Amino acid sequence: MTTMYPYFGRSANQVKKIETVFREFRARNYLSHHHNRKFHNPQRIQPHHNHNLHHRPPLPTDKSQLGVADVAAEMGIACTRPEKRVLAAFGMLQGASTRFEECRDVSFGGVLCALPALTANDLFDHLQKSFPVLGGYHTALRIITLLAYMVLCRIKTIEQLQYESPGELGKQMGLDRLPEVRCLRSKLAQLSKNHAPESWAAVMSQQWLQDDPQLAGSRRVVHAAEASRWCLRTRCLGGI
After folding, report:
1. Contact 77/167 with Cβ under 8 angstroms?
2. pTM for this entry
3. DSSP of 113-144, one letter per residue?
């Protein structure tokens, strides 16, 4: 008959196993704690720094740094988002995400100031209803934005984009670069099917007249603000 310890209420063999496991656990815990204090304690490796004084935001990149980074891209000039482009090539991505970066000395940088005006004139409305869905890296919103930038920058033809920096114009759209001329022609051919631009222009004109019905067939004096707004609408819509 096995003797029982009165405190634990267990046999001697069970108590020995419990004590052995407890000693091993305590030894491992001590070694782990000693190892962390010796090798993984950041206070023993590095001195204390004041992060508020030493932490600085990254400086914006200038034209020369952008040029070097664009040339060093492995997939092509200014293709600095290879993961997104590979996913778009395999049909696993419907349009690249918008991400603006801090840059200096960017060509045609003032075009970004016209982006709120383009939005206020409803240039990006009714795109999903009027145009077909474009798969891949560049969506219909990107193509319409690029065409609007071309009008404002006085770039009259698509071939003239070859003489501009694709990375700098792409940064203004929140992308890494512009689409190539062949890709842009293919996208425009898809957007031009079934008279989609004409229907989009008709819907936009109808919305403009609904917003201000007094301008429909009136000969009243138009103020400078309204004239500049209508000039911007006519210029962008006519150029596109």
Report:
1. yes
2. 0.64
3. GGHHHHHHTTTTTTHHHHSPPPPBS--HHHHH
Residues 76 and 69: their CA atoms lie apart, in Å, by: 11
CB 237, CB 204: distance < 8 Å: yes
* Helical ranges in the chain per DSSP H: 12-39, 42-45, 51-54, 63-71, 82-89, 115-120, 127-130, 140-152, 166-172, 181-191, 196-211, 224-239
Residues 74 and 146 in one domain: yes
152-167: string of b/e by CB count within 10 Å (b at 16+)?
bbebeebeebeeebbb
Residues 31 and 103 in one domain: no
The residues near 204 (Cβ < 8 Å, ≥ 6 apart) are: 122, 123, 125, 126, 237
The tens digit of pLDDT for each residue in 156-198 reads 999 999 999 899 899 899 999 999 999 999 999 999 999 999 9
97 and 134 in a single domain? The answer is yes
Q: Which domain holds residue 120?
A: 63-239
Residue 153 inside a domain? The answer is yes
Do residues 73 and 106 both lie within one domain?
yes
